[in-house]
Each structure stands twice: as structure tokens, then as C-alpha cells.
Amino acid sequence: MRPILSSDAIHPAIGETVSTYHSNVVQEVIQAAAANDVVVVGMKQNPFVKKARKTLQQAGVQFTYLEYGSYTSQWHKRLALKMWSGWATFPMIFVDQTLIGGSDELQALLKNPDENLKSLSRV
């Protein structure tokens, strides 16, 4: 597990800034993951996001899609999500409120029948 800077190591003068950085976007993703079995968080023009969505559609898996800008817009919102999740790329795919990774990890999980991902069963 990667080390995360302890809140004790953040100066009080910036603590609120750190803890509230686009927290509305983070809360939106948390709420979507709580309300839906499968959530894909992505961005326009990203081929891996398109691949993940197509893979889920072809597998008959219903999902909720949240999109935050493109390569040139809304990068601050995506940065907040990266900081929160620790996942540096898009898409971010959540199954049963658990981050499973991106498009490649989704492909691997769908190919592995031993994975217990009830939400990825065919609809």
C-alpha cells in the first residue's frame, strides 16, 4: 500500500484547503457508488473510458457513468478524484463501492470466473 501523508503532517493553515479540494465532486462519486452497483468515472475523448463502457455494455452489465471534462477541461475535478482514490488514470470503475481499477482491470475481472463480483453478472 502506498504511503499517504498523515493529517498530522499537514500544516493547520492549509488543512481545510486540502480536505475540501473539490469535495463536492468526491461526494458525488461516493454517492453514485453507494446508489449503484457499477459506476464508471471518466472523461471525454479518453479511449480507455470508451473501451470500459463498451465492455460493460457488451457484457450486459448496467452501470452509471459520471463524466468530468476532457483533456483540457475540468482537470481540477479529476485531480481531486485521483487524490482521493489513489488511482491515477481514467476510467475509475467501482463495483459494489469498491474501486476495481480501470479498463484493463475490468477486462481481467470479467475473464476470471473465480472473482466474486455479483454486480458484474449479466442482467
Automatic annotation (TrEMBL):
A single GO BP: cellular response to oxidative stress
Pfam families (alphabetical): Glutaredoxin (PF00462)
GO cellular component labels: cytoplasm
CDD domains according to UniProt: GRX_family (cd02066)
Classification via InterPro entries: Glutaredoxin, Thioredoxin-like_sf
Molecular function terms, GO-annotated: glutathione disulfide oxidoreductase activity
Domain Glutaredoxin: residue ranges: 38-100
Family: Belongs to the glutaredoxin family.
Protein name: Glutaredoxin
